């Protein structure tokens, strides 16, 4: 089974990708993980990507595509994969189609996690992180600390990251609408898009996705 997962920032793609990949028995291939792995192993692609990132430039599509191709050719991805963060635009989607076609393969489904924009802003802008340990994450509405501004676990100060501010979140949404959202129409034309409402508990969203995939025969 070969699946692409799309959705705006704050839709819970990373969380859902991990659960779905485990349920389906296929590897979760995340663009972020690909970059980190290639950079830490100092592969040629990793060095190339880092050279752009160090200058504050976007990594070109061809580098991202090459990393994704290399990962999809690994033995554990022979029976399928779940892509998270790739393709990020229509050019990458076309390149993925070409890659798969060359191998006599095709995508089974594109899962579109749908979340109202105001909910995205609420989810991200409400996050608070512990200065002592960034794995201690709270939320002003959904997981409030017992004492405002203080980590329940270690007593450290809770703060809002700069990229979690409402202004930054709305800018990230603009980028998503401009660059990534067009791939949904691209895949709709192929009859591959399965839209999932990504509200509610994590397990409820996962169950909806699994049920939808089953209905689609993916």
E-strand count: 8
**What percent of residues are in strands?**
5-15%
Low-confidence stretches: none
Biggest sheet strand line-up? 2-3-1-4-8
pLDDT averaged residue by residue: 93
The succession of helices and strands, N to C, reads EHEHHHEHEHEEEHHEH
Summed up, the helix count is 9
Straight-line N-to-C gap: 7 Å
The best one-word shape is globular
Estimated structural class: alpha/beta
Helical content band = 40-55%
Q: Give the C-alpha Rg.
A: 18 Å
- Largest sheet properties: 5 strands, parallel
Structure description:
It is a single chain. Helices cover 48% and strands 15% of the residues. It is of the alpha/beta class. The strands form two sheets. The protein has a five-stranded parallel sheet, with helices on both faces. Strands 6-5-7 form a three-stranded antiparallel sheet. Helix 2 crosses helix 3, helix 2 crosses helix 4 and helix 4 runs parallel beside helix 5. The mean pLDDT is 93.
